[in-house]
Amino acid sequence: MAGKTIVVLGGGVGGLVASNELRKRLGREHRIVLVDRDTRHIFAPSFTWLMLGWRTPPQIIRDLSLLRKKGIEYVNAEALEIDTENRIVRTTAGDFAYDHLVIALGAEYNPHGIPGLVETACTPYSLEGAVELREALNGFAGGKVAVVISALPFKCPAAPYETALLLEYAFRQRGIRDKVDLRVFTPETLPMPVAGTEVGTAVKRFLDERGVGFQPQHKLSSVDPGKKEITFENGQEAAFDLLVAVPPHRSPEVVRKSALANEAGWISVDRRTLKTEFDNVYALGDVVSISLPGRYRPDAPLPLPKAGVFAHFQASTVAHNIASEIKGGTSRKEFGGKGYCFLETGYGMAGYGSGNFYGEPQPAVTFGRPSRPWRFAKVLFEKWWLHHWF
Q: What is the largest CA-CA distance in the chain?
C-alpha cells in the first residue's frame, strides 16, 4: 500500500490530538504533517491561573518541535491558501499536497472590531493578555471592574465567569473586596445558555452569592478610553477602572477566503463525522460551526460551543475514521456531542459540568456544586495534558 500524507493545520487542542492519534494508528509509511505558525502549544485553560500569578508562562507551554520525536512532521509556517480542488495547502514554508486534510486552526481574535477596545482592555484569553492582566491587577487598589463578553460566538464559555469568580476571590484575599464593584456584561441571556437553563441559573447563583453583578443582553458597541466608559448596543453605558474583555472572535483569514467558509466565515461540517463538503477534508474545533436545532428558538438555533473538550473528542473521531479508511477497514466512529467543563470558583474549589450537547429536545447537561476534589481534578488534568501529548 502506497503511503498517504495527512496534513493537519493547527497545533492547538484539536490538531495536537488528531496528529498524535493518527500517528499511533498508522504505520510510518504514512506521513503526518502538522503545520502551525506558532512554535508553541499553550495550555489555555491555565490562563486564569497565569492571570493571578499561580502559573508562569514556561509552566503551561510546550514546544511543538517535540512532536518530531513521535514521528510527526512539525512545520513552523503559516497557512496561506487551502486549495481543495488540487488538494494542496500553500504555506510560508512551501506547498504541501495531501491525501487527507484536517483543519484545526481555531478562532482568532479581532479586538480592532470594537472601537477603543485595544487601547483599554486586558484579556485572559491569550498568554500575553493574561500576563498583562496580572500586571494590571498587581497595581489595582479598588474601583469598578467590568468583565465583558464582547460578542458571540466566543470560545471557552465558562472562562469569563471563572475569571470573574477568581477575581472576586483574589480581591477578597488582598483585603480590597469592599473597594471593588465587580460586574459581568454579556450578550447572553444566561451564562452558558446552550448548556441549558439549569446550568445557567446555577452559574448565575454563584455570581450572586459573591456579590458579582450580572448584566445580560449587553452586547459591546464601543469603548471610550478617555472617559473609561463602555457603551452597549442597547444604549446603556457603564464606567470602569479596569476592563477585562473577551475580544470578538472570527475565523482565520486563510479560512475566510477559502471555498470552505460559510456566510459567517466558519466551516460547516457534518456534526457527527466532521466532514466538509470536500472529499477527504475535515474540520474540527473552534473553526467549525455546528448548529443545534430545537434549542429554545427553533428559528435561531444555538451553535455548539467553541471549547477545547469538543475539539479533543472531534479530533479523536476524525483520526479514527481517516486511519480506518486508509487501512481499508470498515470501523467508523461518530462524535456524539459529549462535553465537560471545570469552573473554578476560588477558595480552593471548582465545579464540574458534563453531558450530551446533542441531546433532544434539550442538552442533557448536569453541573454540580463546587468542591475541593474537582479543583484537584482540574490541576491533575493540566499535568496530564502537558505530559501525555508531548
A: 69
Domain 118-247 annotated CATH 3.40.50.720: no
- Cα–Cα distance, 260 to 254 (Å, whole number): 10
Q: Are 383 and 62 in contact (CB under 8 A)?
A: no
Rounded CA-CA distance 168/272 in Å is 39
Distances from the Cα of 80 to the Cα of 107, 289, 298, angstroms: 16, 21, 37
Count helices and strands (H / E) in the chain: 9, 26
Which 3 state secondary structure label does DSSP give 34? Answer: strand
> CATH topology of 5-107+251-338 equal to that of 118-247?
yes
At 293 the pLDDT is 67
Measured in degrees and rounded to the nearest 5, phi and psi for residue 342 equal -95, 145
Q: Domain locations in the chain?
A: 5-107+251-338, 118-247
Backbone angles phi, psi at 315, to 5 degrees: -65, -40
Q: How far apart are CA 81 and CA 354, in angstroms?
A: 37
Task: Output the CA torsion sign for 268, 270, 273, 277.
Answer: negative
pLDDT digits 0-9 by tens, 16-62? 999 999 999 999 999 999 999 999 999 999 999 999 999 999 999 99
CA 19 to the chain's CA centroid = 19
- The cell numbers describing 8, all together, are 493537519
pTM of the full structure: 0.96
Question: What is the fold of 5-107+251-338?
Answer: FAD/NAD(P)-binding domain (3.50.50)
